[in-house]
Amino acid sequence: MEDEPHHCFSFLPTFLPLHILIYTPNPVLPEHSRTKSAAVFFHILTMIISRFLRRGILTSTSPTRRRSWWDHVTPALKDPINAVTDAFLADPCPYKINLGVGAYRDDKGKPVVLQRVREAEGKIGATNFLESTSTAISSKLVEESAKLIYREDSDVIKERRFIGIPALSGTSACCIFAEFQKRFYPDSTIYFPDPTWSSHRNIWGDAHVPGRTFHYYHPDSKGLNFVALIDDVKNAPDGSFFLLHPCAHNPTGVDPTDEQWREISSLFKVKNHFPFFDVAYQGFASGDVERDAQAIRIFLEDGHSIGCAQSFAKNLGLYGHRVGCLSILYNDKIQAVVIKSQLKQISNTMYGSPPIHSISLVSKILSNPNIKALWLKEVKVMATRIQIMRATLREALERLRSPLNWQHITNQVRMFCFSGLTPAEVDQLAKEFRIYMTHDGRISMAGVTTKNVDYVARAIHEVTASDRDTKILHNIGAYKVNTDICSTSLGTNKTRARGMNLAL
Amino acid sequence: MASTLLSLASATPSASLSFHEINKGKLNLGCINKEKPNPFIKAKSFGRVSMVVASNVSHFEGITMAPPDPILGVSEAFKADDHELKLNLGVGAYRTEELQPYVLDVVKKVNKLLLEKGENLEYLPIEGLAAFNKVTAELLFGADNPVIKQQRVATVQGLSGTGSLRLAAALIERYFPGAKVLISSPTWGNHKNIFNDARVPWSEYRYYDPKTVGLDFEGMIADIKAAPEGSFILLHGCAHNPTGIDPTPEQWGVIADVIQEKNHIPFFDIAYQGFASGSLDTDAASVRMFVARGMEVIAAQSYSKNLGLYAERIGAINVVCSSPEAAARVKSQLKRIARPMYSNPPVHGARIVANIVGDSALFKEWNAEMEMMAGRIKNVRHKLFDSLSSKDKSGKDWSFVLKQIGMFSFTGLNKAQCDNMTNKWHVYMTKDGRISLAGLSLAKCEYLADAIIDSYHNVS
């Protein structure tokens, strides 16, 4: 049974590359009898080796001793963000720091469950969930989510010109929209800002919607490349789909100003583009949910009918509960029912509905004005801590007389800071200083605490040492590089860390 | 592409028909006058953009209504009926004798426990809660099973049965392009939709024999044999939905023989483990038989029925591979598929299951409650059978009610007879003749028997 090629797929990985080398006429290989005999020899050798390999792959308890169905399945690339967490978890060093994943931490570096959430959990504790109440709770969630993002007194809400479904946080809201877009605009593409959240590409890619990019981040200024952005929006074919981050752009933290948003919105009207907003950080950028929704409000003023993916992972701290909302604005009621039926159909074949526990929590918190007000205070506390850490980190770097410009740390918003560190520098931070972050240099500010901010600053200063020579000095005047730390004999990594006067 | 469209068009019910129409250039413009061209759908050919038009016309004018879900439609019609003797035998959610929804005592206990523990709400890894993945695989295959011990099972937490099936469907689409899934005729309504949306072609194998109101075993075997080599055969592990008709152990053996012979891959959907017979092990027998033969198997699990966690969306996809190395690779690809769908699965349902199965006292309690639920269904079946046999003087054999297993029963009634059940007797059921025994109480068995006898004999 082993010798018969039952299934062509599993044959290929073992044999194909060598077969190609030996059997296809290769213009590089000389037509020589010695080469031909060598080829035959290697072919026989390959067959013997692969036979041994296959024996090794099949376990002895597999009575049929068949090849596996899954031989041709290659290991998937590790998710870049989770890979950081994995590396961090695997590190036994006691003073390691995780600046990778974007989950909020308090000043002690601990995960936080919001007080409002704990209270809501207590209330829903032993509720019997009937199918009928499930529907009611889902509708409530959609209504409250829409109020939060579109503003309670807006026309869109008053006239109920939105349709939505609960989703498994922001990811699934984007995923359902991507499928919806593919279904009704099968030839369309989606424009992402460059850069964007690492999952966006795969979300639309798996829906077979090709992704394009528009200019966004300016690596030199570490700010917005507005001129190029406008150009790209102009040059895109009319009626293109765009993915926009309304606040706290992930991963750069660079947001357009209100004026810039107005200009983008007008251009969108002229070009008839469809704006789809991925709202993952409402409340987290400025501490004020209204302020953070400003971009969307600007688009609504201009009469756009937009789509929105909302996540309650960060601002309600409900990471593991997977709850969010996908909403689409419409112009007439017939359309509403139609759109909703399609969204439900798409989500029914993916997961059915999000867990009732999650939906209930959000619904309870948002629908009660008193609880909601208290929640908004908690959001402000979280956002404020992040802002303070940004300022502290920048000050620490400036105190170290780093000649590089670190203004972007406080210019950028919300949880992430696009540090400008190179992949080599990121690797060095991990290897020598046990500080973990994604390769694009994105720092999750939530991982920075008053205790570790100095260490982080010094480590960043250290690894950017080589940059001092090669990079243009942005600051006016010459700074004497403080070599006291660097000049001490730096034997082991531990010594280095100790030499930095750790206070962890 | 054409074959995919054909299978989309033949599926019932499916929203993909509108997709089909758009592709063929026919647009249902909804509320817009058909004479006026929609600048959004045909943006390329028109190339003109008018700001006035843009602000009034939606991008989504051309979207048509998706067909309503047939099962939920029954519940809605039931709610609208105010007849005092009405009976909802539509949706498959367990009800007590008083026809109330039931939250298991163990679930209440664990919910309280979790509240007290006050654990954090951090993201789970993409593959889900490790403690849950461990217990769910052990529950299905048996903790002592060599496949578990040798780490040959790739287990990923999924969003109940639906989400788990979808992950497997996406894996099939990616790694076995063009391979077909064979689905029983009939089967759970969402199966076809899941494979359609995952772009996996499917066809049916004969299963239900309306003449015997039993299994068309020969037809099933013939169709599985006739399928192209390397097809995926979707099997219901126990308590077939919607018929309630399961193969006998001997028949399972023959099915396994044919699948091996044709080099197919068995794909189990196990939504009722423990709920069918009351015993977790008995209900997993079919899956375990296939695994014991050394076959590579896909198995989707759901805790919606057996733990009553319908709304918490907790289940798992398991792929039994021939080596731990293959299992690792497959798991990594399942994660790659899940990440863009929802990043990582929800934590609450997973914690409930992990806590119940992981605690021997709670596990025992769960087993007892499951026996109680399965027991109630069995009692109801008996009572219904007795009522039918005693009231019906025609000599018709109603024993299929006893032979069938699980929540559902295929009555053998045709559409017109089902309509009569609803219109005359206010008994709500799906039009394929399926009744959900979970929605039947002992007290109402006689009434139901009257309805069935009347519909069967007096309506054609």
Automatic annotation (TrEMBL), chain B:
It comes from Gossypium raimondii (Peruvian cotton). Residues 86-452 form the Aminotransferase class I/classII large domain. PANTHER family: ASPARTATE AMINOTRANSFERASE, ASPARTATE AMINOTRANSFERASE, CYTOPLASMIC. One of its GO terms (molecular function) is L-aspartate:2-oxoglutarate aminotransferase activity. Its EC number is 2.6.1.1. NCBIfam families: PRK09257.1. GO terms for biological process: amino acid metabolic process. Its cofactor is pyridoxal 5'-phosphate. Homodimer. It comes from the Eukaryota. PROSITE patterns: AA_TRANSFER_CLASS_1. This is Aspartate aminotransferase. In eukaryotes there are cytoplasmic, mitochondrial and chloroplastic isozymes. Belongs to the class-I pyridoxal-phosphate-dependent aminotransferase family. Amino acid aminotransferase important for the metabolism of amino acids and Krebs-cycle related organic acids. No activity with D-Asp or D-Ala as amino donors. In plants, it is involved in nitrogen metabolism and in aspects of carbon and energy metabolism. Keywords: Aminotransferase, Pyridoxal phosphate, Transferase. The keyword Transferase applies. InterPro entries: Aminotransferase_I/II_large, Asp_trans, NHTrfase_class1_PyrdxlP-BS, PyrdxlP-dep_Trfase, PyrdxlP-dep_Trfase_major, PyrdxlP-dep_Trfase_small. It catalyses: L-aspartate + 2-oxoglutarate = oxaloacetate + L-glutamate. The keyword Transferase applies.
